Amino acid sequence: MRFLSLPHFPGIEAHGEHRRRDYFIAIFTFVTTTICLTTDGFAPKYFQYLLALFGWLFLLAFLHGECKYVRTQVAVAVSFAVVGEYFASIYMQGYIYRFGNVPAYVPPGHGLVYLTAVALGRSGLFQRHARKIALVVISLCGLWAAWGLSQWTQRPDVIGAVLFMVFLAYLFKGRSPTVYLGAFFITSWLELVGTSAGTWAWAVIDPASKLPQGNPPSGVAAWYCLVDAVAIAGAAPLLDSLTRTRAYLQRQTVRF
Questions:
Q1: CA 229 to CA 77: how far, in whole Å?
Q2: Quick one: 230 exposed, middle or buried, by C-beta within 10 A (0-12, 13-18, 19+)?
Q3: What residue ranges of the chain have pLDDT lower than 70?
Q4: Minimal CA–CA distance to 193: which of 44, 59, 85, 36?
Q5: Cα separation, 16 vs 40, whole angstroms
Q6: How far is the C-alpha of 214 from the C-alpha of 201, rounded, in Å?
Q7: For 209-251, what is each residue's pLDDT tens digit?
Q8: pLDDT, tens digit, for every residue of 124-156?
Q9: How far are the Cα atoms of 13, 89, 230, 236 from residue 48, in angstroms, in the given order?
Q10: d(CA 171, CA 253)
Q11: How far apart are CA 102 and CA 48, in angstroms?
Q12: pTM for the complete prediction?
């Protein structure tokens, strides 16, 4: 098994202070996600803007303690995820939020969720016990997917089984498997909380494939793994491009 090819985070993995901070980020996001999504299940629409304000404040505060590489990853993740939200929810209507919009707190929320996956993936717990955690995750997600295909479920979930296979591919072939393991925990939790609270609901039939899906689909973490993969792949080129652009502008300033 190829689970212990750990993600690389330049200049931060060796500090005990950062590892304690990683657990704080994870606990904070799990708690605040629960409060936010539960509240948005019944609160008026304008309350979403208040949640967004606090979301950005907390995200920026956490990013202040991160290296430039991780901050760039988060920026890429937020940008890609927001485009995906409008495409999948507003255009395709694969899932629909309570007010038919993309809530204002979704962009910072994606940033916090991605940062939590990163924090868990680089934490001492995940680095020391990656194989055991992977076996737990595969077992849980596999049982969830099997239940969605069984005769006892009230809502067939073929899409969930497909996404579970995609999730396995990320774990075995992806660049940062421990980050994907972290993504499974935080994203599965927020999906279960959000759908239970009525904050959003997944369409009974996936509009793209025309296959039935659960609410939420069992392998939904695979979608967030895609966000993680794009962020990991896009951060270095973007950071290099920004560095080159800044150097070029500085040279032009000196000339004039």
A1: 9
A2: middle
A3: 1-18, 248, 254-256
A4: 36
A5: 36
A6: 9
A7: 999 999 999 999 999 999 988 998 888 888 888 778 877 677 7
A8: 999 999 999 999 999 999 999 999 999 899 899
A9: 35, 17, 27, 33
A10: 47
A11: 10
A12: 0.89
Q: Give the CA count within 13 Å in the CB-facing half-sphere of 235.
A: 19
| Rama region for 25: left / alpha / beta (φ>0; ψ in -120 to 50; rest) | alpha
Phi-psi region of 94 (alpha: psi -120 to 50; beta: other; left: phi over 0): alpha
Whether the CB-CB separation of 235 and 66 falls below 8 Å is answered with no
User: Do 69 and 122 meet the contact criterion of CB atoms below 8 Å apart?
Assistant: no
Tokens of 40: 């948005």
164's CB contacts (< 8 A; 6+ apart) are 141, 142, 144, 145, 218, 219, 222
Tokens of 178: 């421990």
Q: What are phi and psi of 234, to 5 degrees?
A: -90, -20
Interatomic CA distance for residues 114 and 180, integer angstroms = 10
Structure tokens at 99: 């007010």
Angle, CA of 95, 98 and 100, to the nearest 5°: 70
The single-letter code of the amino acid at 166 is V
Tokens coding 130: 């990656």
Alpha-carbon span 39 to 172, nearest angstrom: 37
Q: Which residues contact 189 (CB under 8 A, 6 or more apart)?
A: 30, 33, 34
Q: Position of tokens 């202070």?
A: 17
